[in-house]
Amino acid sequence: MGLFGGRKTVFVDADILVIGGGMAGCGATYESRYWGRDLKIVCVEKANIERSGAVAQGLYAINCYMGMQWGENQPEDHVRYARNDLMGLVREDLGYDIARHVDSSVHKFEEWGLPIMKDPKTGRYLREGKWQIMIHGESYKPIVAEAARKAASEVCNRIMVSHLLMDKTKANRVAGAVGFNVRTGDFHVFRAKAVIVSAGGASHIFQPRAVGEGMGRTWYAPWSSGSAYALPIQVGAKMTQMENRIVLTRFKDGYGPVGAYFLHLKTYTQNGYGEEYESKWYDDTRALVGDYIDRHPVPTCLRNHALIKEVAAGRGPIRMVTKEAFQDPHKETVGWENFLGMTIGQAVVWASQNIDPKHINPELTTSEPYVMGSHATCSGAWASGPEDYAPAEYQWGYNRMMTVDGLFGAGDTIGGTAHKFSSGSFTEGRIAAKAAVKYVNDMGKAQPQVSEQEYRDLEKVIYQPLENYRVGRNEIVAGTVSPSYLLPLHGLQRLEKIMDEYVGGTSTNYMTNGVLLNRGLELLAMLKEDMDRMGAEDLHQLQRTWELHHRILASESVTHHTLFREETRWPGYYYRGDHMKLDDEKWHCFTLSRYDRNTGKWAMEKAPVYHIID
Ligand SMILES: Cc1cc2nc3c(=O)[nH]c(=O)nc-3n(C[C@H](O)[C@H](O)[C@H](O)COP(=O)(O)OP(=O)(O)OC[C@H]3O[C@@H](n4cnc5c(N)ncnc54)[C@H](O)[C@@H]3O)c2cc1C
């Protein structure tokens, strides 16, 4: 196709539309078929489900497995664990729901061909920690994708979904989505009775530590662009805990994971002078968060806190002591294999910096913040809970349905439920799909209607950056700086700088306050105004443009939530300098937001946290 002519409009009708074919999307697609034998199930993915999402290059461990068949853990134990790690605030109903079903998902992975390591003595899955089991996981994603491919009526790869469509006959009901093919440029209109959003978390909203020649390297997948949040936000779905961004302690420069090293190789950390430092910060941390510091295991954010403080006190760098463990040839092999299965880049960085962990203790650092709902963090959409378990206030219809009718979510999309990881995200996709099938069946003939006016208007908006570039390009003879358009990379860097400096990124040591946040919101509003002047050279840049739109909306949400919660609940993830302490009296609650796309205003409220499990 020429860029400006001959573009086709492709209509795809579905009973259930799954947006994003990562772990949760594959789970949703698979399970939709199980319950909806005769339904039309369509999975739409901006990349190719074979190797898309955060699990694209494989994993070395499945981080959420109860082991109920051997009586290792019960779902209640997992809820207690996640609640403790998130400093008291999780949706226990949703977490319990995942935990009680997650083992069956893992058994399916094994049945489909995923090699899971076994303990030679017991024959059980080999544990890395209390919740983690070890896998040979290079092909984890292709294996899961195959199950989804076989279940789907159609998988539409290479379609970037930019907007959801709403029903023209019934307010607050979803009716489908629109997007464009990133290879052909064709415009896609999806009409669906129910939509499941499973479009992953958000990296690159805060400036990464890796800039310049290292730009693009982040811990979370660089292609996770916040669509999971922006798509529901645009249509007025309520969001929760968006302030709860995650910061990770990782090997420096390669973002290599440390879990297997701590848990399996039994390594430990020390400061630049070879001293143990965590205990030094005990009193300081206790003054901020009270007895949360005495909990076991110590919440993830508080472990970051000690590291951040020690470095700020001038006693960095923090190093992981690997020299001892690596004297054991078996442990040395496990240490390297851990990267080869999921973060080859870390091995390459070490090689390039002359670091052999057998002889040099490698440096650790804390990452830039990420927004996601499935790791040790729980940002995302506010969803209805399971009928048999959720308190009445958390139920308004179908399990995992957001506050928009017919709009479901799973994985990083859904808020309040940390520690789902790959297996829990897949499981939540299955749970959402079962409910979505019921929703479609209950709907009968009362199907949503799509407005032609709405999608034709969106079509103009979506492709406008190509036109801006075509026209504006004539005003300059060379280079990338134009008086009339902004390139997506420039917009991205501006966003990252705003979030970094005003909303608690690395350059301020994760510190922010009400004044900074309000200024951040003003700057974000200016960036949003300039988004009308985006210029896209080609379809690739058009995709970058829409990813940036999504990142900005997610960032605005993060900033509003951070401003609303007047306490420092998770030191080590971020600090409100004007409210440095955890305040259980006022803030032992969820924060909720709702965006009004007609006025551009955000409404904030609190929701109660119900402790269902003792
Ligand atoms: C570095 C790293 C290490 C991890 N390690 C582990 C581990 O060891 N063990 C473990 O169990 N878990 C691990 N996880 C967590 C696990 O990967 C996530 O919990 C899980 O992938 C979340 O599933 P999801 O479906 O929500 O998101 P994803 O799996 O990321 O899927 C999102 C999908 O949506 C697509 N998409 C996004 N936007 C759009 C759009 N606008 N239109 C169409 N498609 C779109 C993406 O391309 C992607 O395919 C790790 C994650 C990361 C980043």
Give the distance, in angstroms, between the N- and C-terminal Cα atoms: 61 Å
Indicate the low-confidence ranges by residue numbers.
none
> What is the overall pLDDT average?
95
Specify the helix fraction band: 25-40%
Strand content: 15-25%
Q: Main sheet?
A: 7 strands, mixed
CATH architecture identity of one domain? Up-down Bundle
> Considering the protein shown, what is the CATH homologous superfamily of one domain?
Fumarate reductase/succinate dehydrogenase flavoprotein-like, C-terminal domain
Radius of gyration (CA) equals 23 Å
| Number of H- or I-type helical stretches | 16
Main structural class: alpha/beta
Associated small molecules:
flavin-adenine dinucleotide
Shape: globular
CATH topology title of one domain: Methane Monooxygenase Hydroxylase, Chain G, domain 1
